[in-house]
Amino acid sequence: MPRVKKCLIYIGIAAFLHQLPRFFDHQYVPHVTVWRGHFEEVCRVQMAPWVNALSLDAYFITYFAFRVLFVHLIPCTSLVVLNVLLFRAMRTAQINRQKLFKENRKSECKRLRDSNCTTLMLIVVVTVFLMVEIPVAVVTILHIISSTLVEILDYNIANRLILITNFFIIVSYPINFAIYCGMSRQFRETFKELFIRGAVTSRNGGSSRYSLVNGPRTCTNETVL
């Protein structure tokens, strides 16, 4: 848990620093225009002087290249590799479970089955994430190519694709919660203990908080996650 908390803090700081220039790359200046036959003073949006000093191309190419690399490509590639490794680990665990079942070692077999279910759940969650994130990465890469090298992107279509992909990203969040609830009894029990008063559940004489995921591991054949 301490490592997880540190990683979350580092990721949050990196995300904040990545988006920080976007808070200051525009400025609003007064502008006089004709409205219904008389002059009105309104605000006009323009790029900040420091962006023009860097050049618009350098600024936006750097921003979107960083986004494609560290927000899309590296995470998605890492998750694809993780999915492959999880699938291999699950296959190995399934073989070990069959051996334990034949040897009538039911307790170890059950622990291995629970660990296998957790691995399968992670594969499903990662797959859902990739299904909604890869299209965004593709559109962003096409946008960079179209803005710097050759115009290949119809932005009317691109804007619709972005709206659709953003919608599915939002939809994926409750889907992930449903996956956790549907595939993990440990998650359901811990969720009840944390958020539903009086719903204290126990399994095998202990709380689900000290389960295969969080508690001490006693079976060396478990899938290491």
Automatic annotation (TrEMBL):
Subcellular location: Membrane
InterPro entries (alphabetical): 7TM_GPCR_serpentine_rcpt_Srw, GPCR1-related_rcpt, GPCR_Rhodpsn_7TM
Domain of life from the UniProt record: Eukaryota
UniProt keyword list: Membrane, Transmembrane, Transmembrane helix
Protein name: G-protein coupled receptors family 1 profile domain-containing protein
Record lineage: Eukaryota, Metazoa, Ecdysozoa, Arthropoda, Hexapoda
G-protein coupled receptors family 1 profile domain boundaries: 1-180
GO molecular function annotations of the record: G protein-coupled peptide receptor activity
TM region positions: 7-24, 60-87, 120-145, 157-182
Gene Ontology CC annotation, any one: membrane
